[in-house]
Design brief:
two-stranded antiparallel ribbon, 3 helices, alpha+beta
Length: 107
């Protein structure tokens, strides 16, 4: 588990624009923030990450693991952090209920 989380963090760091703020937000959740990206750029980034993770060969101690991710995407507008996080979390769970390996959100 820890090795996969480390690899996921590195994949996100390598693939997301340097102007974005990325981090692990507890458990198996990661967050990506951008004050400058347009809604289209955010959705494009989310789709690229979803596809990369789906194709990535996570390997640890000679075991190969294939994963998928679900993403919740929200455009901030005038929302405060707590509201932004709450909405993103709701969209994340919608994505999981929709069959996983997808993106749900509001931009």
């Amino acid at each position: 588990g820890d090795a996969v989380l480390e690899a996921m963090g590195q994949l996100i760091k390598d693939e997301v624009d340097a102007s974005y703020i990325t981090g692990r937000f507890g458990g198996e959740e990661f967050v990506i923030f951008s004050a400058e990206a347009t809604a289209e750029q955010v959705l494009s980034c989310a789709q690229r990450l979803r596809s990369l993770v789906e194709q990535y060969d996570f390997s640890h101690e000679q075991q190969h693991i294939h994963l998928t991710i679900s993403l919740g995407v929200v455009s901030a507008g005038v929302l405060n952090f707590d509201e932004l996080y709450r909405q993103a979390d709701q969209f994340l769970y919608q994505a999981k209920r929709a069959g996983r390996n997808c993106i749900q959100g509001s931009t």
